[in-house]
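Lab notebook page, bench 4
Experiment: in silico fold of construct C2
Operator: M.H.
Input chain length: 395 residues
Purpose: comparison with the prior construct
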Amino acid sequence: MTLSTPPFSSDAADQERWKRAQDRLYVACQCVGWGIFLGVQSLFVTVFAEHSDVERGWFLNLCGLLRVVTLGLLLTHYSRRFIGRWGWKNLGWLALVPRMALLSLGLSVVWSGVGFAFHYLVEGGPISKDYSVGLMFLVSTINGTIVFLSWYFAYFIYHLFDRFNRSEIERLRLANVVKEAELRALKSQVNPHFIFNSLNSVRALIDEDPARSRQAVTQLANLLRYSLQSGQRETVSFEDELAVVNDYLALEQVRHEERLRLRLDVAPETLNLPVPTMVLQTLVENAIKYGISARPEGGEITISARIEDEALCIIVTNPGQLSFAATTDRSHRSTRLGLRNAEARLQLLFGDRARVSLRQFAPDVVAADIVVPLRSADIARIVPPVAPPRRPVSV
């Protein structure tokens, strides 16, 4: 027998240690199994001993049983090579059972034949005075077939579970690869759109205020650095996301000036909690594009964060109506691509309980809700920070 597939590891030393563990388990199973068989046979011989067995003495009887058990152990051990060579471990039970029965019968004939030949040629004399040799050989062959068949059933049942474990590990590995690929694809959709909007803000400053444009370039560089670093991490703290919003709003303020107003309502204990990278920035970007840019008078964006029902709940509100995008020109129509990406990333990282939704919060206010389920490690980190949170730029 062998152990199931080792954990994900490509280290040669780890593979070698796992192979040694497999060998130790196989030896242990063989010794325990055939040791139990030896004990049962010894008890049987002691209780139902014939006169000839008593005359031989317990030591000779024990030596005979040891010879029988050793031969059975060797037959099962070396038959594994043929099983692997014939590919029986990959067969279904309908094809495997008749093969096991035939192999068990063949090994039992060899087992009984060697035992009878040794008894006649070395020890001399018949095995029993009460029964014929043919009947004794038939009974011995049947018993041996049952023993070998039991051994092979245990062997292949173990390998059935081993094969199931291997398929599960491969399935999980494939799911992990797909998950990483989906996350990379979703990030590649978010980041270029975000950079494009930021560059437009910087471009608007170049002719009007060169000094301020240099400051905006620095802020954009901070955003790009964060964007590149976020590609190496799936989640960041909510406080880091607020810092990114700070730089982003500073750039957007260049275009919108007094038309952009911001209000924060963030509970301090939420700052250390993990969120997907760029998720808050995505919602704020949508709020500005469809709630501020689309209205000549601008409006106020509100960011609030609370912990409710073991989940981090983030709400971003902006002026507007859900039907607004459908009734305006194409430049202000929302495809909700950013929201779909944010929800897909959330569910890949935090499961089905995570969600992003858009709703009509008030007659002229739209709210985007994010629900990030908290894990046990996240709950343990809910400690209000000593320093106050960094606040995005407001007008």
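Observations: The CA atoms of residues 303 and 316 lie 5 Å apart. The first strand starts at residue 235 and ends at 237.
Next step: discuss at group meeting.
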